[in-house]
Design goal:
Blueprint: E1 2-7, E2 12-18, E3 24-31, H1 46-60, H2 89-99, H3 102-112, H4 124-139, E4 146-147, E5 159-160, H5 162-174, H6 178-184, E6 208-213, E7 217-225, E8 231-239, H7 243-258
Parallel strand pairs: 1-3
Antiparallel strand pairs: 2-3, 4-5, 6-7, 7-8
Amino acid sequence: AAQVKTVAGRGARIMAHSTSAGGIEVRGWIGARAGVRSYQVVVEDPTAFTAGAFRRALAQRGILVSGQTRYAVTPPGAVRVGSLLSPPLSHLIAAMNRESINHFAELLFRDAGRKAAADGVGSVETASTLLQRFLTTQVGASPNAVSVADGSGLSVLDHVTPRSVVQLLAYANRAPWSDAFHASLPVAGESELLKQRMRYTPAQGNLHAKTGTTNDVISLGGYVTARDGELLAFAFIYNGTDRWNAKSTIDAMGATLAGFAR
């Protein structure tokens, strides 16, 4: 629902929020000479939002839908009236890692948790349970090495040790999906979030890794090929407010690893 008034001038004051019915309510005012304004709204309940959007689309085409929108298991005899195929997981992972799309990370994390949920609904709790089981039984990480409160890594309650990240990277390098994972990571001095970093060093075009940045954390984890051809996995995590110097130090360590030889 939109309740935005057009007034004289160039300014604008617009507020938007998701509703319990799955829609988005927009209120405020915008100047006639304000030009185009773009806003982003976090959808608290993607399921409700999708159902609400579908119901509205049906109504706009003259299809009456009675009663309240409800969520349930699809009946065995249900007839599919439409579908939209998702891009391959490798494409989603590439977009997530290269552009650091937190929303992708959150949804993929919750989706993975569906297999650990009795009701088949993914959540942070079920995904965290599955992650802990995977890290301890397959990756070999310590039971207390990782604690997560979300899938994006933005929560201040998230904790992870550099050793557990390196263990996970080593596992990923041996996994059947290793090539897709390596290809999803930004490359130092060449692409995405590392395009301007470690340029004109042995790490350029070589080191490929994922960044991680909040107000009090800056990190980098990935792979680099040493001077003697050995593939190295690394994880640098800094906690503090001097992120500029930490970033420079991390880049220097990345270049050092690229020039390393046993």
